[in-house]
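ugh ok so i messed up the first submission bc i forgot one of the chains. this is the corrected input, ALL of the components this time, i swear. 472 residues overall. if the numbers dont match what u have on ur side tell me asap before i send this to the collaborators (the ones from the other lab, u know who)
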Amino acid sequence: MDFIGFKSELTLVFSVMLVNEKSAAEASRVDEVYHGLLLRIVRGEMPAGMPLKSTQIARELGVSRTPVVQALQRLAADGIVHLELNKRAVVRPGAEKWLVEIHEMRELLEPHAAALAAERISEGQLARLEALAAAAAPSESLDWAPLAQDFDFALHLTIADASGNFVLAEAIRKCWGFKRLSYAAADEPHEVLDKGYQEHLAILQALRARDPLTARAAMLLHLRSAARLRPAETIV
Amino acid sequence: MDFIGFKSELTLVFSVMLVNEKSAAEASRVDEVYHGLLLRIVRGEMPAGMPLKSTQIARELGVSRTPVVQALQRLAADGIVHLELNKRAVVRPGAEKWLVEIHEMRELLEPHAAALAAERISEGQLARLEALAAAAAPSESLDWAPLAQDFDFALHLTIADASGNFVLAEAIRKCWGFKRLSYAAADEPHEVLDKGYQEHLAILQALRARDPLTARAAMLLHLRSAARLRPAETIV
DNA sequence: AGGCCCCGATATGGATGCAGTTTATGGCCG
DNA sequence: CGGCCATAAACTGCATCCATATCGGGGCCT
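and heres the new structure output, hopefully the right one now
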């Protein structure tokens, strides 16, 4: 297994994240290792069952074992990695299907969150989303895609927050953290982005109308449509 | 904040866990700290916003800072604790509603898992559950409750596994890990246990019949009924 | 040839040390 | 008496170190 380019990729991914994150909190070494490993696992470069030796990873990344071990603890809490006392961490079986299964779970969580959010979202949150929607309106501009993605991200995350269920919000946020990994590399065709944008607008309108049932349905439709457009989405 | 009795409680909780866990893998110090902190947080002894200083916790528990920091990383991955670079970890707001919100999420996840499981559960898994169900049948025996809880636990977890969606299974498993914390202290009244048992049987029968819709409905009914019986369940 | 055991290489868990940052304290000034 | 800043104390992130457990390969016996 080669780690060539691991570090540079890492910082790439990270800079992307920092640009989009609202709270540009500095990243600790633990975060870097965590995201780097996650990316490699989700990409399938670390197949299920592969041992993740803290010693070796630390050597490859040029950091001490301490942050690596901590990152492994986080991956273990995510259920991506299996830790056993005195044994090496291993990538859990099924890791390659991760993104597909995440999507399936989102279909359970997010429609419900949207319904809850329709009744609880604040005026300020709505206004912010509408501003983002306006900014992300399809145009001939070349860098329209990133704006659409910002809107996408903000919409889903705001809904999660506005659901009022903190655990639910956290779960959705985590799903998005994973999904995000695939975004970096994904080059969606134009019509997919456009369709997504329309669906997002429908969700936003339902929220504005404070209509839980419509919000739920619009969210479900959006997720199903996304699943259909990228049916074999394993990584990208 | 006093930590009196923290360690002893810790080992108590843990011994309970080990008895019920199938894989009696030894617990590392990280696990102990993690479970201990989680218990205190869920019980409300660590209110939202309280700083969790690794140095201090390590001192109180008589361990070094290393396992404490790792436990905090896991709690952060769970979303229970918020970590910021160079700042002390803090208990996230809403931590006291954790168990209620977990339950709400289970109502989203487990019915779906049950439906999936109805079509995928193996004969062996069914047989094992039926054996547990028989063992846990209500009787005059004093220690019937633990058997019922074993059955409860096994049923839900087996369904999660049999759903075939690994992420979903992991999420459910984690919910149960949290719920379990409340079990230790909970003394359910007899009729609640009995009702639960009947509901569990209904779910099992639907699985046996390979009937996804019935399984989903039975699971949802079970969860709603549990929520109704302990509406103000915050800790117990 | 194939299984078994033993031992060196290598890994892990945890403690400790240190540099840098944050937080609390206390004196000073308005 | 209350706000403000300097300074001391406390805390964090990370590296390093040590004891112990696991892994892996070669020799030995069957």
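quick check: Chain B touches chain A through 38 residues (CB under 8 Å). that seems consistent at least. Residues 28-30, 63-67, 70, 85-88 of chain B lie near DNA strand C (CB under 10 Å from a C1').
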